[in-house]
Design a protein that fits this description.
Elements (H helix, E strand, L loop, with lengths): L2 H9 L4 H24 L4 H8 L3 H9 L5 H10 L5 E6 L2 E7 L35
Antiparallel strand pairs: 1-2
């Protein structure tokens, strides 16, 4: 069986074509974000510092298919780009979102954690020497 005939057989199953398209979209977003970061010469750790988040969060963003527009805009601006979201209907393009010129992204401040209360060492009362009765 050739690869092409195997592919046709797999895609003939109900829902397979839609699932393949969904996976392609996920990979396109992940590859696109990763490529933007790498083109900017940034590691995940560098980008995380710019955004004030952790490196594992950057990795999760680059793998996720559910990225908010706000987060996507922050990511794109942190790598020196501008986010633009447009809808194409026939030959007509309608821009829904167009971010301002890229600016330096200031890291988000994390909520300060309260320092744990210092333990106060308590001394046990000194044992009194028994006096003979």
């Amino acid at each position: 069986m050739s690869i092409k005939s195997w592919e046709n057989k797999v895609l003939a199953k109900p829902g397979a074509a839609a699932r393949v398209a969904e996976i392609e979209d996920e990979l396109r977003l992940a590859a696109g974000l990763t490529a933007l970061r790498e083109q900017a010469g940034l590691s995940q750790r560098d980008l995380a510092k710019r955004l004030g988040i952790s490196q594992p969060r950057i990795a999760a963003i680059e793998r996720s298919k559910n990225v908010t527009v706000e987060l996507l805009e922050q990511y794109v601006e942190a790598v020196g780009g501008r986010l633009q979201v447009s809808v194409l209907k026939g030959n007509k393009r309608t821009t829904l979102i167009s971010s301002a010129e890229p600016t330096t992204v200031k890291p988000q401040k994390r909520a300060a954690k309260e320092a744990p209360a210092k333990k106060v060492a308590r001394r046990a009362p000194a044992k009194r020497a028994r006096q003979p009765a």
